[in-house]
Design a protein that fits this description.
The chain is mainly beta and 264 residues long. Helices cover 2% and strands 34% of the residues. The chain contains one helix and 17 strands. A hairpin with a 5-residue loop joins strand 4 and strand 5.
Length: 264
């Protein structure tokens, strides 16, 4: 697949039930810190992000890895981190517990603001720089960066990638110019979400909808009784003037309005 536009040549395809993987990272409040259950999903409300359906050979909504950073809304410090590798599973939703770096007893009446940044399938974003990790320090009750590497919220929002893995031919002759009868398995796509959340003393569960880091275009073809023979596409469809880089996160942040890169 060339460029950052993802093309789906499809008619109506059936929905398959989502698989949900749950991972528990310890008992909530085992050292007095807030623990919430996070669910990352590739399904959104109807009409919000059409085309995130699941079908055989269609991998665009699968979650293979997920990395989440949580920043404190008051001072911008890192107050949560988790990374999960699901490369041996086919799931469209992922749930796990994450411990935050503050106590539930210290949450004010109007709540504690946190900013969640989640990235799924980072390995599919070609040209994406290496992302740092963090660990929880039980002595201080805070998260600390590892290997002397860290990343800021602005740097997360400015992450770019330059390509995607190509779809794989699963059925048909790769040398044939006629695409009739060929079937492809679509590539795993990078997804991301940024969400501001007010944590209250009652907060226990959060759901964050992941969104693909690229645009999707659906093309429909109809013969309409013109001419004879079957309608088919030989050697695909070509797009021009495609950006060489794309943002990982949707660009609706005011701090990035002056950027020259165009999202989608």
């Amino acid at each position: 697949m060339n460029g950052l536009k993802y093309i789906c040549l499809a008619c109506i395809i059936p929905f398959l039930p989502s698989c949900i993987q749950e991972e528990h990272m310890g008992d909530a409040g085992d050292d007095g810190r807030v623990t919430v259950s996070l669910t990352f999903t590739t399904r959104t409300e109807e009409g919000a992000d059409e085309g995130m359906e699941s079908d055989e050979g269609n991998n665009e909504n699968l979650i293979r890895t997920v990395r989440v950073y949580v920043f404190d809304g008051s001072d911008g410090s890192l107050t949560g981190y988790h990374h999960a590798d699901l490369s041996d599973k086919n799931v469209t939703e992922k749930s796990f517990n994450i411990r935050l770096g503050f106590s539930r007893h210290t949450i004010p009446a109007d709540g504690h603001t946190c900013l969640f940044y989640a990235i799924a399938n980072e390995g599919s974003a070609e040209g994406l720089k290496s992302l740092p990790a963090a660990v929880y320090d039980s002595e201080t009750g805070r998260y600390v960066w590892t290997d002397d590497k860290e990343i800021t919220q602005r740097e997360l929002l400015e992450l770019t990638f330059s390509g995607l893995p190509e779809s794989k031919l699963t059925e048909g002759d790769p040398a044939a110019k006629d695409e009739t009868g060929k079937k492809y398995s679509s590539s795993i796509l990078p997804m991301a979400v940024k969400q501001e959340v007010v944590i209250t003393k009652e907060t226990e569960n959060l759901t964050l909808p992941l969104r693909r880091s690229l645009g999707k275009m659906e093309l429909y073809f109809a013969k309409g009784g013109i001419g004879e023979g079957d309608l088919y596409i030989g050697r695909g469809v070509y797009l021009y003037n495609i950006p060489t880089k794309g943002y990982l996160f949707s660009q609706d942040a005011p701090a990035l309005e002056s950027s020259e890169l165009a999202h989608r």
